[in-house]
């Protein structure tokens, strides 16, 4: 017993010395340690990598967590093919090492943190630009001239939001353009529909402006006034969207450079649920474009998303079972006849109160488009795991088959943001800067200009 205690005391002493000892290794030895860690990762030697962790961390991090963490990276980007020169910042006790990695389908970065004794304190996969090794979002290659943008304000009173009017590069007093109003998806989304390192609405606006089409995009009220808006009693889906979309329509129709009878609504994700209803209520709307539109309520989509993420077997997979069970119960309650204004918000999806979900029932996007006689364009990415081709797009097609005013486009390589990729789509994919595929820009432009 005494020998076991002394062994643990000595282990602890070594950990302390390892952590506190100033860095005295040569650059060659440091490079060797880095190479060993990269090899452990590349060869899927989770046990060996775990042995290189700083002592106390080995007690907290099982091999399975390391395996799952790297597994989700390779599922997203393919196998590691090479590494660039590490950028090393040596401190007195801790060193930070940033390494560019070349995977089959993308470049990504790795940040290592090591003790002065060479033990591993931390390991994180990050976008290259977060490590200072590359730039973030870049203007798409299909934007070949300067667009004209100006700030606008939409809404009234305490819930005003900012927006951007984007006009084609060349306009004369005689020329007027069609215009698109972009309506973003769920959550506190900004005017560019920013998701981590991607700005799909900005890509669309700039790409379409170069093809002669104006647009308005705006920050959602949940982005500009998150606390004040959520503090309101009985908030609804109508409150979240309608006022600002209607104001954007009026702004477009009054602008001297825009054709007032050629203003279209573009809804992405949850925005595609809202857009058909508004098109039926406002005769001046010329038509609508539905991008990755849910055919079922978004709380059902959320359950499917969680199951998909569990199937990827990433680091969070062991903890998703309980979350899926809870989300399923919340979805069933939101769908049931027992939902009422007295139902507690904590029992419903995303902690949003019952007035929101009762109002949601009034929108019925598929049923609404069935009655709509205006032109409708439905776009879907095959690699989208949030709104899927199998569960949502096929319902749209089945319900609307035979309607001459509805067109469909399915893009094999595109994800939820309409950015191209290969392999299974995962949340990690959104951490790599990309642009909306040019074919989507061309298809929308052709449809609008027809």
TrEMBL record:
SUPFAM superfamilies: alpha/beta-Hydrolases (SSF53474). Residues 240-417 form the AB hydrolase-1 domain. Gene3D superfamilies: alpha/beta hydrolase. The keyword Signal does not apply. One of its GO terms (molecular function) is hydrolase activity. It comes from the Eukaryota. Keywords: Hydrolase. This is Alpha/Beta hydrolase protein. It holds the Pfam family Abhydrolase_6. Coiled coil: none annotated.
């Amino acid at each position: 017993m005494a020998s076991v205690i002394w062994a643990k005391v000595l282990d602890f002493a070594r950990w302390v010395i390892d952590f506190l000892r100033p860095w005295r290794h040569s650059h060659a030895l440091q490079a060797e340690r880095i190479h060993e860690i990269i090899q452990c990762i590349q060869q899927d030697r989770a046990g060996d990598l775990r042995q290189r962790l700083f002592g106390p961390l080995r007690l907290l991090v099982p091999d399975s967590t390391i395996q799952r963490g790297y597994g989700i990276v390779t599922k997203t980007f393919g196998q590691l093919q090479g590494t660039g020169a590490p950028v090393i910042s040596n401190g007195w006790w801790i060193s930070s090492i940033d390494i560019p990695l070349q995977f089959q389908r993308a470049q990504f970065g790795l940040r290592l943190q090591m003790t002065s004794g060479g033990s591993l304190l931390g390991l994180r996969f990050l976008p290259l630009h977060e490590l200072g090794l590359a730039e973030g979002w870049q203007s798409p290659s299909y934007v070949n001239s300067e667009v004209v943008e100006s700030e606008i304000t939409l809404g009234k009173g305490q819930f005003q939001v900012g927006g951007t009017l984007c006009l084609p590069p060349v306009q004369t007093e005689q020329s007027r353009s069609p215009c698109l109003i972009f309506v973003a998806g769920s959550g506190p989304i900004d005017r560019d529909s920013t998701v981590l390192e991607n700005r799909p609405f900005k890509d669309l606006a700039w790409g379409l402006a170069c093809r002669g089409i104006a647009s308005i995009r705006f920050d959602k009220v949940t982005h500009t006034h998150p606390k004040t808006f959520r503090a309101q009693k009985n908030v609804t889906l109508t409150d979240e969207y309608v006022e600002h979309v209607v104001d954007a329509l009026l702004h477009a129709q009054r602008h001297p450079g825009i054709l007032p009878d050629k203003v279209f609504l573009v809804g992405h994700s949850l925005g595609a649920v809202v857009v058909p209803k508004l098109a039926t209520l406002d005769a001046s709307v010329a038509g609508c474009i539905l991008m990755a539109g849910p055919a079922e309520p978004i709380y059902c989509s959320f359950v499917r998303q969680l199951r998909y993420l569990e199937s990827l077997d990433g680091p969070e997979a062991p903890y998703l079972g309980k979350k899926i069970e809870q989300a399923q119960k919340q979805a069933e309650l939101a769908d049931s006849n027992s939902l009422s204004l007295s139902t507690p918000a904590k029992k419903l999806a995303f902690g949003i109160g019952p007035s929101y979900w009762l109002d949601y029932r009034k929108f019925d996007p598929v049923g609404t488009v069935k009655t709509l006689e205006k032109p409708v364009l439905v776009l879907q990415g095959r690699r989208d795991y949030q709104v899927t081709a199998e569960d949502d797009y096929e319902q749209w097609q089945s319900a609307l088959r035979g309607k001459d005013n509805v067109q469909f486009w399915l893009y094999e390589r595109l994800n939820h943001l309409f950015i191209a990729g290969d392999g299974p789509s995962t949340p990690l994919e959104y951490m790599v800067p990309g642009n909306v595929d040019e074919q989507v820009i061309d298809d929308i432009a052709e449809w609008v200009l027809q």
